[in-house]
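#lab-general

N.A. 3:47 PM
ok so I finally got the sequence cleaned up, no stray characters, all 296 residues accounted for. can someone with queue access submit it? mine expired

B.Y. 3:52 PM
send it over

N.A. 3:53 PM
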Amino acid sequence: MKVAIVGANGQLGADVAAAFRERGDTVVSLTHAELELSSLESVRNCFDGSGVELVVNAAAMHHVEKCEANPEQAWLVNGLGTRNLAEVTRDNGTTLIHVSTDYVFDGTKGRPYVESDAPLPLNVYGNTKLAGEYFVRTLNPRHFVLRTSGLYGTNPCRAKGGRNFVDLMLKLGHERGKVRVVDSEFVSPTSTAELARQIAAVSKSEAFGLYHATAEGSCSWHEFAKEIFSLAGMTVQVEVALPSEFPAKVPRPLYSVLENSRLKENGLNMFGSWQTGLAEYVIAIRERQSAQMLPA
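B.Y. 4:20 PM
back already:
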């Protein structure tokens, strides 16, 4: 199958491209240099006559503060850009897999969100991502919308300065031997490698629709940090930080845990526990560091 990955140079997109290549598919890696999502003409020129059978949209403007400060740009990428993809893939009879976010919810439910729960975003990022979801779901019947949560991966996250939460904790742990992390926000930490494998698996199905796609289980950011250091074999003091110590510049959901209800209903769920995914990631980091230390 010929698969196009939009945002292929991002933290998730690189792993998605690798997952499809490992499966033997022909992968077309698209970055902003090859495709301007906000331009319908650019999207049509890219895909019309290309022979692409599946498009995976892993591109987004997902820096929450920057979205809040520049809602027009966030809309152009997350809303209008996604609409353009949905329209062109529909016209070409192409399946579209679109990656969305837990931030479409307000976090007040207090128990895991399922696909049938009503979304209520708290910020520009969440609202523009929800708009993108609606465009995909109404324009292209051959769609999968996958909401995920707390992503981290071995490829740099450019929107966050190239460092995800796991990498940041390891860096601070080495430098300080002590970190302070809030225990009032809950998430399902999900590795991009696991999500990429799930995306590849879903692509073989005809059970189109909206899905939640995260690692199993949940934790606070404080619990997540403790597990990171435990798996890394580091002795680091992890203290509980008060929410006032790291005041959010933009409203965010305090509880954004997702339940993979529809994946399970359709026999598609491939996720293990968030601890298992984290252990795999820590091993990957060690292997990468060992390889870098080998003589040329």
